[in-house]
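Structure first, sequence second, as always.
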């Protein structure tokens, strides 16, 4: 089978060696741009993906030299592959939260309210993934595959929703399409689309798995390349946003900020000097001296 002059399997094998290089470039770009704090989940995802590839490729190519049987090599490959996928899905949820936090930074009230909603959505998604994966006559391997696959699908849907939100809110929030917030979300959206297509593709056309494996490698490399480019290039400064006092954004932001504030307290009933701290007593004594009064101590 050929695809635009390339052997499909040969191209897929080549992309497997390109992925770790792009992961390393992305990590270095994030560190050099001094963005490892705001984008720590992205750097961690690239690091986990790089580590998994460094473990999986030798298992595929040199398991005989490692004195491993085919069954032993497959077992190691299975747990490393699906374990890294599970960790990457969790880190992708963290990336979504960090992207929302950075996009809504000017509106602290809506930022805090949205973060609360996203945390609950992530918790419910993880609970549903585990509950859906549980079934009768379930083996450990099938449970892992179903649970991780469900987490990936849920994370992909949330990612695409976040991408749509960023596209609509990017200009009102003072950002541009050259901003790293958009670049990270775009790369994650490419990977999310690839994962959703994979679910339908493998289920309805398992015979074309080799072709999909190649397209999957292209999508992953494209996402890593997008992240590397956005962190290598300088980011434009965020514009100052002006929200009119009649804007619903302004009112909902003020309401959201007020919802998180602790209520004030007043003293009810008799109050003695024992209820005050020494510093408060000293302040009252000095104020009374200026007024010509005496505060008993």
């Amino acid at each position: 089978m050929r695809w635009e002059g390339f052997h499909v399997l040969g191209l897929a094998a080549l992309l497997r060696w390109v992925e770790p290089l792009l992961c390393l470039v992305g990590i270095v770009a994030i560190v050099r741009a001094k963005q490892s704090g705001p984008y720590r989940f992205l750097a961690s995802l690239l690091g986990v993906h790089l580590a998994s590839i460094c473990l999986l490729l030798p298992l595929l190519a040199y398991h005989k030299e490692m004195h491993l049987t085919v069954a032993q090599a497959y077992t190691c490959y299975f747990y490393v592959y699906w374990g890294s996928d599970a960790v990457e899905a969790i880190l992708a949820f963290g990336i979504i939260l960090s992207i929302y936090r950075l996009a809504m930074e000017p509106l602290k009230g809506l930022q805090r309210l949205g973060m609360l909603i996203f945390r609950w959505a992530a918790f419910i998604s993880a609970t549903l993934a585990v509950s859906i994966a549980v079934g009768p006559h379930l083996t450990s391997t099938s449970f892992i595959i179903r649970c991780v696959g469900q987490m990936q699908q849920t994370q992909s849907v949330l990612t695409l929703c976040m991408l749509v939100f960023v596209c609509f809110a990017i200009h009102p929030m003072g950002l541009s399409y050259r901003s790293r917030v958009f670049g990270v979300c775009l790369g994650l959206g490419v990977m999310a689309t690839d994962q959703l297509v994979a679910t339908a593709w493998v289920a309805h056309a398992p015979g074309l798995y080799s072709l999909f494996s190649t397209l999957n490698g292209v999508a992953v490399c494209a996402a890593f390349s997008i992240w590397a480019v956005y962190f290598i290039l300088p980011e434009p400064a965020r514009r100052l946003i002006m929200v009119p006092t009649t804007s619903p954004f302004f009112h909902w932001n003020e309401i959201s900020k007020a919802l998180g504030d602790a209520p004030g307290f007043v003293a009810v009933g008799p109050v003695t000097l024992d209820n005050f701290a020494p510093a408060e007593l000293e302040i009252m004594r000095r104020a009374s001296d200026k007024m010509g009064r005496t505060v008993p101590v």
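Margin note: Residues 2-232 form a domain with the Rhopdopsin 7-helix transmembrane proteins fold (CATH 1.20.1070).
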